[in-house]
Amino acid sequence: MSNSHLFLQSGFIRTPLQNGLGRYIPQLQRITLKFCKNQGGSRGVRDFIESDLMDFAKNNPGTVVYLKPRRHRSPCMVAEYLNGEREYLSCHEFSRDEVHKWLSYMCTRSGIPVMRFRKYQHTDYPSIQGVWNPFTHQAPEINLAQYPNDILSKPANQGPTATEQLIEIFKKTQIKDPIKPEH
């Protein structure tokens, strides 16, 4: 098991500005694609720019796309979010599809740094009764029971089944109105 989570920041799930409760605001403010015009490691970024960049810009009108050619440097993406966070990603020897996937990943992120969650739930107004779980109101006998258990398997305080009710109705109709054979 990896210990990399020990070095992550810890915190709770946060939603930026209650995003999505009335309207959705894309959190990616701008993205800068830095690439070299003739270096081999920038080929995937150049292919993406030539073929898919216009479609990306049309589909994401709230995101500003900057292209920054630079000589003899490795390609990278810099994403800037509305909360002021910046994310840097090296795109050295990425294919066109990889550039597209990482770009769509950055578009769907909130910009909040990746963190280790302290709990799976969080509220600003905690309950004094504790956290509910499915076993809160279960009978304590279940903890020590050996299965299969005849007592726990029986339906509690239930009447006859639907099949038994139909058989009773059929028997009552047979007694009241017996079928007379025709001669």
UniProtKB/TrEMBL annotation:
Keywords: Mitochondrion, Ribonucleoprotein, Ribosomal protein. Gene3D superfamilies: Glutaredoxin. SMART domains: L51_S25_CI-B8. Transmembrane segments: none annotated. It is found in: Mitochondrion. Residues 37-110 form the Ribosomal protein/NADH dehydrogenase domain. Belongs to the mitochondrion-specific ribosomal protein mL43 family. This is Large ribosomal subunit protein mL43.
